[in-house]
Amino acid sequence: MSARNGRIHYLALGGCLAALFMLSTAFSLVLTREGEGIATVWLGGGVLAAGFLMLPRRWSLGLGALCWTFQFGCNLVLGNSLVHALTFPILTIGEAAFTAWLAVKVCGPALRLTTLSRLARLIGLAVAPATSLSALLAADVLTLYGHSFDTVLANWFYGHALGMVIVLPAILLAARPGLMREFQRPAIEELALYALVAASGVIAFTPMRFPLVLLFFPAMTLVAFRLGPRGAAIAALIMGVTASIMVVQAPLAEGVSWSVMERTRAMQFLVALCFFTSLTTAMAIFEQKRMKRLWIGRTRAARASQDRALAAGKAKTEFLATMSHEIRTPMTSIVGFTEVLLTREDLPEHARRQLSLIDRAGASLLSVVNDILDFSKVEAGEVTLNPVPTVPRALVQETLAIVAEAAKLKGLDLRLSFIGPVDRTVMIDELRVRQILLNLLSNAIKFTDHGRVSLEAQAIAQGDHMALRFRVSDTGVGLTPDRAARLFKRFSQGDASVSRTHGGTGLGLAICKGLVELMGGHIAVEPPSGAGAVFGIEIPAPVADAQTQAAPESPVQPLAAKVLLVDDHPANRELAATVLDILGCEVTLAEDGEEAVTAAASRAFDLILMDVHMPRMDGLQASRAIRALGGENATLPILAMSADVMPEMEAACLEAGMNATVGKPIQIPALHAALARWLGRDASAIAA
């Protein structure tokens, strides 16, 4: 708040506290003095201590001086001696100041009395010591002037301690508007509840034999439930004032012979008990509401975090799809035309060697892109396994044949060994297992300059399952313990130095780990022991039944077919047309979806290769339009041919009526396999 608003606030607060001190002091000195002239009800100490805690120091000094002057004057007016008139205010001011000092020490400067433990510390470690010390000092001083030590000590302690216990926490709680946030009620309801408390205080001490003081508890409990801790504190102040007035002024019931001191002490104990009972209830409700608000806030934060994570995941997916498309589109021409040229027999040797270098470079770049996309699928849990009958021996031999040329170029000895029934057919995802082994073998060759690379395949029969174990070892640069510990983490490199000589994304082993675990197996690197590295894999595999093992392979029909090729990129059209011509197909070209629909409506085709991202009408819209033509077009195989190979796009293609997807860049073996599959199937099976 501004300086001017601060002055106004402290002036108003100081004025209210001063007025409350003066009223309570006048009431206590005029109406409740008994036993050596000590007031049996002393509420002013709690008011003054609250002022010292809530006001800045200079305002507190002003409040203390004003209250001392008023109490001193009251004592003189009431006929007390000058010694008494000086002693009582000094002890009262000292008691309040000492209580405030102790309260800050034990509860902290903020004095947040929001829990019972803090309230107990305030009473037990601040109020009790301060009032005990002031009572002891008052008894010592007044004994010098002929007063009874025991009487002064007891009357002072009871009057001041009980008043402080009720008034100080009540004012501190009442001065915190934030405690009402969870208990907002209409103003008329608040006034009605406070009026009920005041009426209970009046009725409870009417001269009747029935114990009407029991009305305190239901009234205060109702306030606690409806208005919370702050409302309970205000109600306690109202109850204390009305009960004090009634105790002093109301006549006793017939047959009751209590003195004023006994009645006031009983009243103070009752008000304190009622206050702390209702305050306990209010604080429990307040804590429950606070925890509920906290839970709601954290739930909202968690939902917001989830929304941000989903948005980030969607943005990542869109980014990967865009980058995949933008990288794969030019790579289609690079890789595809390189493969086409390498099939020519009239190339000079140096040209063939240069094309081979281009082909390897393109394959390396494609491997980087595929690693990123595969890892994204593994992280998102979008990889699905396709178990097929597989003979482990044949799988391993084919995999080793793929990397044999790379090992030969480096002069490495490539070794293969088998243990157990590796000729028994099992059900595994052949492509994914080959991908894992190729990654491990490629790494072994990459990091080995001299010596050998070994692959050991072992099959262990376990009832109707087989445990397939593969062990890849090399004599390369080896691994340090710290590098071995982070190998299976994403973007981790075996050689992460600035001067590293081996490339790669650092995703290959992370992908292998994800795929192996998806198959229910595990992968590990053996502890480093000098040169070389050893990786081990174990994968459970069901044994294929006899019927599955004996099933003959479906014959592949010749690829001579009428194919509609749809692609907006001129280089991609030329490349795909060249590859299809090599495969013996008759090709019709279309530059976008509209031309494709027109061509499909005018003549019959055996298959359509459809690009996805095209101007005017994209591949998804064109596929729906072709299906809507009816007739043979309803069952015509349509294969998406796109650089966007993300799972979301594949799902969108299938939803639009396409049968499968062929990723770019175009590779002759993969395209041949896809065409052979779909041209060789029955039309009704394709439609299904």
Automatic annotation (TrEMBL):
Residue span(s) of domain Histidine kinase: 322-543
InterPro entries assigned to the protein according to its UniProt record, in alphabetical order: CheY-like_superfamily, HATPase_C_sf, HATPase_dom, His_kinase_dom, HisK_dim/P_dom, HisK_dim/P_sf, MASE1, Sig_transdc_His_kin-like_C
Alphabetically ordered keywords of this record: Cell membrane, Kinase, Membrane, Phosphoprotein, Transferase, Transmembrane, Transmembrane helix, Two-component regulatory system
Topological type in the membrane: Multi-pass membrane protein
Location (main, coarse): membrane
Signal sequence extent: none
Residues covered by the Response regulatory domain: 562-679
Top-rank taxon: Bacteria
Cellular compartments annotated: Cell membrane
4-aspartylphosphate PTM sites in chain numbering: D611
Enzyme class: transferase
Source organism (scientific name): Phenylobacterium koreense
PROSITE patterns: HIS_KIN (PS50109), RESPONSE_REGULATORY (PS50110)
EC number assigned by the record: 2.7.13.3
Catalytic reaction list: ATP + protein L-histidine = ADP + protein N-phospho-L-histidine
Molecular function via GO: kinase activity
Protein name: histidine kinase
Annotated TM spans: 38-55, 88-107, 119-145, 157-175, 187-204, 234-253, 265-286
